[in-house]
Amino acid sequence: MSIHIRDISKTFGSFKALDGVSLDVPDGTLLALLGPSGSGKTTLLRIIAGLEFPDAGTIEENGADITERHARSREVGFVFQHYALFRHMSVFENIAFGLRVRKVPRAEVQARVEELLGLVRLEGLGGRKPSQLSGGQRQRVALARALAIRPKILLLDEPFGALDAKVRVELRQWLRRLHDEIGMTSVFVTHDQEEAFELADEVVVMNHGQIEQQGTPDAVFDKPATPFVMDFLGNVNVYHGRVENGRAFWHGIPIDYPDYPHAQARDARVYLRPHELEIAPAGTAASRPGTSLPARVLRVTRSGAISRVACRPHGSDAELHVDVPVDTARDLLLQPGVQVSITPRTPRVFIPGPEYVI
Amino acid sequence: MTESTPRMIAFAVNPTQEAFRGPGREGGAGSAGIRRRRRGSVLPGFGTSAAITSMVVLALIVFPLAVLVLRAASLGPGGFLAAAWTPRARAAYGVSLGASLIAAMVSSLLGLIVAWVLARVEFPGRRILDALVDVPLALPTAVAGLVYSALYVPKGWLGQVLVPLGIKGAYSFLGIVLVLVFVSLPFAIRVVQPVIESLDRDTEEAARILGASRLQTFLRVVLPGILPAVVTGFALSLARALGEYGSVVFISGNMPFKTEIAPVLIVARLEEFAYAEATTVAVMLLAMSLALLVVVNALQQRLAHNAQ
Q1: Which residue among A51, A70, A101 places its CB closest to the CB of B210?
Q2: Looking at the structure, do residues B106 and B176 belong to the same domain, yes or no?
Q3: Angle formed by the axes of helices B141-152 and B173-197, nearest 10°
Q4: B211 and A149: CB-CB below 8 Å?
Q5: What range does the domain containing B98 cover?
Q6: pLDDT tens track of chain A, all 358 residues?
Q7: Are residues B228 and B154 in the same domain?
Q8: In the 8-state DSSP scheme, what is residue B170?
Q9: What per-residue string of b and e applies to B89-100 under the rule 16 or more CB within 10 Å gives b?
Q10: Among A238, B61, B161, B214, which lies 20 to 30 A Cα-Cα from B42?
């Protein structure tokens, strides 16, 4: 089922949680709402669920206006961050709840719950109480409970937030397969960009109650629309420089920026991710004044198959972070004190607007 | 060697104390004593606290009750029954138990509603209302009895409206129930309120999204979580009501066979210097209260086990 959200606003007291948000979720999409806490992503999810009502704007499902319809009659599945299981009921009764209140015949409930227990791989645990399950198992019960009523839309609020790293990755992949098998429309909220990028077909980055960018994970990662998105999507080297006559300057190195052909200089920010910088020993062919930056290595730390190199450009107190494969770091004999030269490969230039605040 | 010497001395002086714990592995010698201390409660001195607890319970509760039972037993089985099972005494037990059970039920129901509102609804004056709940605990109950009877007598503020309608609030069974609700309500509220405050509200939203109506959500999701506390509140209210004397004596009229409760009968017997008879009634009241509380506690534990 497709969801169309038009100009939704929501205010709690004096806090503007959502400010004119419009969003289309095509049928069958797995969409991630990504943003820092307080960005309005959970409020948007709760409005789609019918747990909150917008002050302004409309929501449509398959073209039907459901803005005023209460959660009870929207037939969506909702998975809460902290599971929200019914503690006094067995796993079986938890999953059966939605069917029982719909007065589904006993035999049908039995069959459906058994089927769901199999789907979430909890066969034989139907008689347990939630308190006798692990965190990952509880989250799967919550998911089975939400799926029992065959919702057309599945909404998940930070579904893996309370789980440890290994379980989180497993459940993530499993949820992706489940989504593809059932073929429903799913929206999940997360503040973990890795989770959003690994799991979703579409990523929506939110900040201050507004959508900063919507697109496929590739599009959002490779072509961040705003400095906020660039910042939020992980480690980035930010340089506060200037732009004039179609060129920005990064530590004195010119970068083409045809979008600003004017002669009057303006403040600009140059963004480079750690893997978008090239590192070479000082004095080699790769180090040419004007295109590369002489620097000194401060630290080298290892993270999996990558060495993170912290460098300090000459005559500056800035710190540049460069990621290189571990083998490269070894070949280049990178260690604290070594002189290197750094070349930017794909710099991005943003001219901060007056409204831009991080 | 230089390191282990002081440790040995420490153990010799006080083997249970964990003094001089070296940086390395703990030796096998003193580990049993140490383990017991580590695993025990946060408070030190289990022996001392157990002794104090038993002393308190013995001196303040068991000893006086034993004297009471002994005194009653001095009558012999025949004499005991003759004194404890008179028609007037049987009527008094009936009034006491009946009024207390009804009052405890009313208090539990009202307490649940008031606790829900205090825990869940934000309104101006909520904190003042919250503080007022405890007033019946501090007020001398005789004062409550006097005020209630003044209100409900035929010429009282409420009585002049209610008595013509056939509702007699003073010198009646209803009057007894009224003051018993007054004295027991704080217990019913205060036991349930923190449990409602600690409910996971996500579960209510989950139930609603799954299609449950408000009533279904309350009955199937909310109530099972708070029912053990409601039953505990009922037990406390019942105990409080069974023992109440001060307020009832002013509002009930104390008519034998009609509005005389067992505690009032005990005092009446004492005033006739019939001490043995007074103690037999007291023992009967005690036995009935104990039986009721045991039943209610068993029920409460079963509910609590289901709800965890």
Answers
A1: A101
A2: yes
A3: 120
A4: yes
A5: 78-307
A6: 889 999 999 999 889 999 999 999 999 999 999 999 889 999 999 999 999 999 999 999 888 888 888 888 888 999 998 999 999 999 999 999 999 999 999 999 999 999 999 988 899 999 999 999 998 899 999 999 999 999 989 999 998 887 888 888 888 888 898 898 888 999 999 988 888 988 999 999 999 999 999 999 988 888 888 888 888 887 788 888 888 888 888 888 888 888 888 888 888 888 888 888 888 888 776 556 678 888 999 999 988 888 999 999 988 888 889 999 988 888 888 889 888 988 888 888 888 765 444 3
A7: yes
A8: S
A9: bebbbebbbebb
A10: B61
Give the residue from chain B lying closest to A76, CA to CA: B209
Domain locations in chain A as residue ranges: 3-232, 237-350
* Beta-carbon separation of A88 and B211 below 8 A: no
Residues 6+ apart with CB under 8 A from A229: A205, A212, A213, A220
3-state class of A304 per DSSP?
A: coil
Residues on chain B touching A71 (C-beta within 8 angstroms): 205, 208-209
CATH match of A3-232 with 3.40.50.300:
yes
CA B219 to chain A, closest CA, distance in angstroms equals: 12
Q: Least CB-CB distance to A86: which of B203, B211, B216? A: B203
Number of structural domains (chain B) is: 3
Contact B202 A76 (CB under 8 A): no
Contact by Cβ (8 Å): A212, A230: no
Kindly report the nearest CA distance between residue A270 and chain B, in angstroms.
44
Q: Which residue of B has its CA nearest to A73?
A: B211
Task: Flag whether residue A50 sits within 8 Å of chain B, measured between CB atoms.
Answer: yes
User: Which of B58, B73, B88 finishes a domain?
Assistant: B73
Cβ contact (<8 Å) for A71 and B205?
yes
Within this chain, do residues B127 and B197 fall inside the same structural domain, yes or no? yes
Mutating which of B122, B199, B209 best tests the A interface, going by the most A Cβ atoms within 10 A? B209
Q: Between 3.40.50.1580, 2.40.50.100, 2.40.30.110, 1.20.120.1760, what CATH number should domain A237-350 receive?
A: 2.40.50.100
| B14/B101 same-domain check | no
Same domain, B14 and B52: no
Q: Predicted ipTM?
A: 0.79
- C-beta separation of B302 from A88 below 8 A: no
**Which amino acid, residue A310?**
A
* Distance in angstroms (rounded) separating the CA atoms of residues B161 and B157: 7
CB atoms within 10 A of CB B237: 29
Same domain, B116 and B223: yes
With an 8 Å Cβ cutoff, is A330 touching chain B? no
User: Which residues of chain A make contact with B216, given a CB cutoff of 8 A?
Assistant: 101
Measured between beta carbons, the chain A residues lying within 8 angstroms of B224 are 88
Q: What's the burial of A228, exposed, middle or buried (CB within 10 Å: 0-12/13-18/19+)?
A: buried
A129 CB contacts (<8 Å, ≥6 apart)? A87, A88, A89, A90, A91, B308
Q: What are phi and psi of A305, to 5 degrees?
A: -90, 10
Identify whether residues B101 and B176 lie together within a single domain.
yes
Residues B212 and B88 in one domain: yes
